[in-house]
Amino acid sequence: MWPQEYHIRALERADLDAVLTIEQASYSQPWTREQFEQELNNPAAFLDACAAANRLAGYICYWLIADEMQILNIATARQFRRQGIAQQLLDHAFNRCAEQGLSSAWLEVRAGNTAALTLYQSSGFKTDGRRRAYYRDGEDALLMVREFKDQKFQE
User: Fold this and answer.
1) What angle is formed at CA 7 by the lines to CA 98 and CA 99, rounded to 5 degrees?
2) How far apart, in whole angstroms, are the C-alpha atoms of residue 96 and residue 99?
3) Rama region for 135: left / alpha / beta (φ>0; ψ in -120 to 50; rest)
4) Which terminus of the chain is less hemmed in, N or C, by CB atoms within 10 Å?
């Protein structure tokens, strides 16, 4: 069961300092403030935040174009990891997109990011391909997909 003190809401510009702190602690090549601001202005983009006791615990950024979801970015603050927050953010996004006829979700993940791979595999994603030397440091990306066929969503 997920603690009641956590709640998911739309990410706001006022959250960007906290988002950048989490982003920089989570990724070797973090997004910039400008990238997050671009997504906040993108009509196809959704940015959701998970807040806990007035602190940002995590966030997700994704697009919904037609019936396909593209997950661009998801991260959890170090002190909130392993508490199910990333899973709750994913489930929230799936539910939100299901209302608009979600058929599939796609993402790219570093081939060596075992924590993320575990999360995505437990969420029903399957590896659909590999992008060799996809990241600036030469690491491969795995292309992952989850198909949604007549699924009921719960949050």
Assistant:
1) 10
2) 6
3) beta
4) N
Q: How far apart are CA 29 and CA 50, in angstroms?
A: 22
Name the residues annotated as catalytic.
108, 120
pLDDT by residue (tens digit) across 137-155? 999 999 999 999 765 555 4
pLDDT at 52: 85
Tell me the per-residue pLDDT of 56-111, one tens digit each, with 9 for 90 and over. Answer: 999 999 999 999 999 999 999 999 998 899 999 999 999 999 888 899 999 999 99
Per-residue tokens: 71: 């997950």
Pairing of strands 104-110, 68-76: parallel
Q: Which two tokens stand for residue 91?
A: 């489930």
Say if residue 1's pLDDT is above 50: no
What distance lies between CA 55 and its chain's CA centroid? Answer: 18
Can you give the residue ranges of every domain in the chain? 6-147
Helix (H, G, I), strand (E, B) or coil at 154: coil
Which CATH entry fits the domain spanning 6-147: 3.20.20.70, 3.30.70.120, 3.40.630.30, 3.90.1150.10? Answer: 3.40.630.30
